[in-house]
Amino acid sequence: MSEAKPPLMARVGRRYFESRSSKVKALAAVDALHVLNPQERAALRRVEVGAITRAALAGAASGGACALAEFIGEREWPDDPVSFWTLMAVVTIAASVAEIAYIYWETLRSVHELARVAGLELFGKDRKESDEALIDALARAALELPNPVDVRAGVNPHREANKWRLLLISLAYKAKVGVTNFVVKLLVRRIASRVALRGFLPFVAVPVTAMWNGIVMWLVLREARIRAMGPSAIEELVKVIFADAPALSAEGKLSAVRAVASAIVRTQDLHPNLLRLLTTVARYAGDTGKNELDDVGLFLEHLEKLDETERKVSLQVLAVACVVDGRLSPREKKLWSDALVAVGRPTEFKTVERLLAGFVRGDEIADGALRAI
To answer: d(Cα 69, Cα 283) in Å, to the nearest integer?
Structure first.
């Protein structure tokens, strides 16, 4: 259920991971991969702080080079726009290319190091086996590539999506640094009344670019950590769910799989952890026949027809589906609320929020937070 051929950048990321894995081995894990002990937490923090600091410094250097060029150009060629914009173009292009190349390398290196200190051997012991889906997911996280939409999974994550909304979100993300620079400059112009201070306006980009690089690096590493822990956590959580349940009816099996599919539709993204959860639940549930999986209305309608034990299985699977991508969005909250209403239970989010917090922190989460649902 993966793409026939990942995009070029994802393949580049895979090759880098393979090359680095041959030089530095993963640290031995004393417990399950998704459970982070104090030593692993400390090591992960060191990786994250170092990467965020270096990304911020790279942004500051790039922004500083562009600001210095603008500062010099305004003084040397105030009446010669051709010379001014030539200088700006050369410096901006050179600084941007250097910054982007460094940031890509730094994120790939840091994501691999994060996986390594957590005890994850991407290419298996003695390099005889590898988890291709996980390697691709980590490469995409490092390079900020979108998750694939794979119709072979039987679920269309954009079934309920508004295409204009998806486009606006994408444009807003791409414009984040430029828009922030513009807003900050407007504020400085309003506040700075002295000409001397206004002369340093181009240097506003230095802290803004550094800040964005630091924030983006933090988000990338958080996402990579969630993807790295996902397969191990999913296997344990699904095992607990089905160990507590007797043999499910055909409707019970279908409802469990539809719970994951409904979460995918509501997140509007085929997150690799959700895809992994879908395949794992389908493996435990068994054959569900040729039924439509990604109709949220059918999931909610049939949920109330199940017996109490099978309802519990579906709700537990849905709770896991709502948290394994590392966030609980408003649309996922609405799905959880609708599911509780469908089975006649009062709306509450504490149990699923506790499960989310435990998963993200790397706590031992299965027996406590999951069985409480």
So the answer is: 59
Nearest to 354, CA basis, from 323, 313, 311, 314: 323
Model confidence at 7, pLDDT cuts 50, 70, 90, reads confident
Q: Which of 10-14, 148-152, 256-260, 319-323 has the lowest mean pLDDT?
A: 148-152
Q: Once rounded to an integer, what is the mean pLDDT over residues 219-226?
A: 92
Q: What was the pLDDT predicted at 100?
A: 86
| 163 pLDDT above the threshold of 60 | no
Q: Are 11 and 143 in contact (CB under 8 A)?
A: no
CB atoms within 10 A of CB 173: 10
- pLDDT, residue 1, reads 43
Average pLDDT, the chain: 82
Q: To which residue do tokens 């609320």 refer?
A: 337
- In the chain, domain spans: 8-224, 244-370
pTM of the model as a whole: 0.81
d(CA 103, CA 325): 24
Q: What is the per-residue pLDDT across 97-148, written as a single tens digit (0 to 9) for each?
A: 898 889 999 999 999 999 888 888 888 665 556 778 888 999 998 888 888 7
- From 292, 290, 293, 222, select the one nearest 257 (Cα to Cα): 293
Q: Are 87 and 72 spatial neighbours (Cβ–Cβ below 8 Å)? A: yes
